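Quick one: structure for this chain?
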Amino acid sequence: MHILVTNDDGIFAPGLAALEHELRKLGEVDIVAPATEQSGVSHSITFLSPLVCKEMFKDGGQEPAQHRGWAVEGSPADCVKIGVFELCRQKPDLIVSGINGGLNAGINVLYSGTVAAAIEGAFFGITSVAVSLEYDDHAQFARAARWARELIEQLLSRDDVVNGRLFSINIPTAAVQRGTADVQVVPMGVARYGQHFIKRQDPKGRTYYWATNDPPPEPTPELTDLTALAAGHVTITPLSFDMTQHEFTSEMKSWSLKTTRLVGE
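Got it. Here's what it folds into:
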């Protein structure tokens, strides 16, 4: 199996190293990751400037130096696209993005560069998984990576139904510290949150605003990734990049929408 590993925290992020270590147990790994942190860039791509790609080597003091991967001056989606078509030694069978330092649950899925990298992989019909760990100052990426690898193995064992699909795995800190957790397959929550800003002034008297995560989303009666994570469960959410409301599309076709004829001025 050939695996492309990427992230949005940058090629030197500890979550990437932990994931690389575990996924090498499943097959050959190619790393193609952003040169610098790209958190929150969503699915942005680079097309008005060239993509600079720098080969990175392991610092093991060996001669000749061992190849580790590629650092790309671009977004996570850029990394996957150029990785699949230019930099990987062969077309990947699996793409894994992470481990992100911070959960990508609820509407954060829409903003996440981590999830966007997995979406880009799914565009090309490659099974793709985004992995995120609730962040704290003592985040245990190695332990989270083991769980991620175990869950990915279980997904791949059902290749007849998961081939080419897109998944998001979220791991709460409490579960990693506890060393045990139930796994819940849940939809993403869509409650709005994080609309408040802190208003301040810099030393030169200029006003600036700092985005916050407040207020938190209101609890919902339905079990979602947000409620399951709050209860300490590991979550898996199957995602789709087709945002069409198909049933509503069928209804709208009966509306006979039209335009008027344009005439010269």
